[in-house]
Amino acid sequence: MNQILKQNNKIKHNLNKLNTDRNEIEKAYSKFISYKVSIEEHKKRIDEVKEWLGENSDENNKKLLNTLENSLAGFDDRFHNIYEEQNKIEESFDVLSKNVSNKQCPLCGVNHLSEEQLMQSIKKQKERSIHALLELNSEFTKIKDKIKEIKNLTVLREDKEKALRDSEKIIKDMEEENKFLRTFLQPMLNYYKIKAENLSEELFLGLLRSNESSEAEAKNVLANIEKK
Predict the structure, then answer these.
(1) SS3 104
(2) CA–CA separation, 118 vs 115, rounded Å?
(3) What pTM value is reported for the model?
(4) Where are the domains of the chain?
(5) 193 vs 206: CA distance, rounded Å
(6) How confident is residue 76, by pLDDT bands cut at 50, 70 and 90?
(7) What is the torsion angle, in degrees rounded to the nearest 10, for the CA atoms of residue 130, residue 133, residue 134 and residue 138?
(8) Strand, coil or helix: 111
(9) Which H or E element spans position 87?
(10) Which of 1, 36, 44, 146 has the fewest CB atoms lying closer than 10 Å?
(11) Spatial separation of the C-alpha atoms in residues 16 and 59, rounded to whole Å
(12) From the record, what ranges are coiled-coil (predicted)?
C-alpha cells in the first residue's frame, strides 16, 4: 500500500512538473514569436533605410544640388525677357494703333481692321505673357524648393543613420535573448530527448507535443494505479 502511495505521489509530482514545463514552454514560445516578428520588421526597416541612404548619398546630393543651382542661373534672363515683353506691349498701343489697316501688324502678324481688334490682340498677347510668367515662376519655385529639400537632407540623413543603428542594436539584443531562451530550454530538451541547434517554431511545437504525450502517459498510469 505504501508503495502504491509513493508511486501515486511520484506521478502527481511528475504531472505538476509537466504542467510547469508546459507553461514555461508556452511563455518562451510567445517571446520567441514576438522576437521573430520584431526582428523581421527591423530587418525590413534596415533594408529600406540602406536603400534610402544609397539613393541620397552625399555625393549624389552634391551633384544634384550643383545641377539645380546652375539651372537657377538662367532664370534672371528668362524673367527679364518676359518683363521686357510686357513693358513693350504696354508701351506699344500708340505705335500699333497706326497699324489699324488691312496691313499685317508687326506685333502679331494679324490685319487689324479696327482699334477694338487691336485691343483684343494686345489683350491676348498680355494673357500669353502672364501665363508664361506664371509657368516660369512655378518652375523656379519647384527648383528652389528642391534645393531647400536637399540641403535639409543632411539632418534627415542623421536621423536615418540613427534609426539604422537603433534597429541593428534591437536585433542584436533580441538575438541575445533568443540565445538565453535556448539555454533556458536545454534541460527540457534533454528531458524530452529533443536535439536542436537553434530555436524554431518546429522546436517549440515538438516540445509541446512531447509534453502533452508525457502528460497523457502519466495520467494513464495514475488512473491504473488508482483502480488498484
Answers:
(1) strand
(2) 5
(3) 0.58
(4) 2-227
(5) 10
(6) confident
(7) 180
(8) strand
(9) helix 75-91
(10) 1
(11) 65
(12) 1-28, 133-177
